[in-house]
Amino acid sequence: MINKKQGKLSREILVLIGISAGISLILFLILSGVVSVIAEEYIFNNDIEMTEFDWISLDRQISTGSALLSCFVFSVLFLSMLSERIAYIRKITQGIKLLDEGAQEVNLPLQGNNELTYLASAINKMSKTKKELREKELALSQEKEELIHTLSHDIRTPLTSILAYSDYLSNNEEITPEEQKAYLTLVKNKGEQIRDLTGILLEGARRKVERFENGKLLLEQISSEFEETLEEHFRLKTDLSACSDFTAFLDVQELRRIFDNLSSNIHKYADPSQEVLLEITTKDGQLTIRQRNTVLHGASSPDSYRIGLISIRTIAQHYDGKVTVNQDEKNFEIIITLSRIL
Questions:
Q1: Considering 34, 128, 180, 292, which has the largest number of Cβ atoms within 10 A of its Cβ?
Q2: Does the reported pTM lie above 0.70?
Q3: How far apart are CA 252 and CA 95, in angstroms?
Q4: How far apart, in whole angstroms, are the C-alpha atoms of residue 80 and residue 70?
Q5: Parallel, antiparallel, or unpaired: how do β-strands 286-294 and 210-212 relate?
Q6: What is the C-alpha separation between 125 and 7, in angstroms, rounded?
Q7: Residue 28 and residue 59: Cα distance in Å, rounded?
Q8: Smallest Cα–Cα separation from 164: which of 95, 247, 267?
Q9: Contact (CB, 8 A) for 287 and 338
């Protein structure tokens, strides 16, 4: 732990001054005494006549010279002992300059246990905080960009369905009023879904989790919509026999986005001559959606396929779930497990 007590550095400097002054004083006393003895012996040995004024002048000269030399020694000693702290101050100053210039990271060494050490530690923490904020900003920016990509992709699917239903209604003169009403209901549902997705895209990722007393009934309704989007081109087998009645907290639009991405991938990459399987089960508080199909020969998986899987995985994470994809050249299988729903 760094001692934050004020005045620690000043006390250290006072100690250095005291040491330097003590050594200089001892040097002054020794030097003036030795020089005085040497001068007296020289005068007596050479029979030099000295008046009282001459002796006083000599003592002053010896004292002044010794004092000057002692002051020089004091300055050298004090600056030598203080040089380490001066160098440390320069390191701290350089660190502040780098931080101000936008350096990625500043990591100053922690020397001693005084205010300078505390200042260096504070600069390191500031640098770390700045780096973490920069990383969070980058992560938020990437998350926002990914959200825009996934939602833009998810909007296309219901929009495509609306166009397909509208085209079917306008070109089919033999359609019954009941069928017309059913298709118009689907168009309305898809339109509302686009409205909600657009709202999320413009306003942010706002979830609308609701309590459903009969989760199975909701899944039957959504899977029925899923069937209607595929029935003209694919043979679909839907199995909810292992799906028991359950109460759940769900966001309906998120479930629809899952099934829309599944139907979009089926339209693009599934073999129409082979059966498409959709199986929904519940067990131990988990809801599992399993979809399997045969891959159309020559079909590739472009960026839209990747974005669709990212969207499904993002939604699954909201329920502490996971997504498993099993794929080879002939078959495709995706297993979506939602854990935190019951």
A1: 292
A2: no
A3: 53
A4: 15
A5: unpaired
A6: 22
A7: 13
A8: 267
A9: yes
Q: And the tokens for 52?
A: 């009282």
211 residue type, one letter: R
- The model's pLDDT over 4-48, given as tens digits with 9 standing for 90+, comes to 445 677 777 888 888 888 988 888 888 888 888 888 888 888 877
HSE on the CB side for 113, CA within 13 Å? 4
**Mean per-residue pLDDT pooled into runs of 10, the chain (342 residues):** 58 83 88 85 82 84 88 86 80 81 77 79 83 80 73 76 80 80 80 72 68 90 88 90 89 87 86 93 90 83 66 87 89 89 64
- Strands 235-239 and 275-283 turn out to be parallel
- The Cα 217–Cα 315 span in angstroms is 20
For tokens 């006072």, name the residue.
Answer: 14
AA identity, residue 205: A
| 3-class state of residue 117 by DSSP | helix
Q: How far apart are CA 157 and CA 230, in angstroms?
A: 12
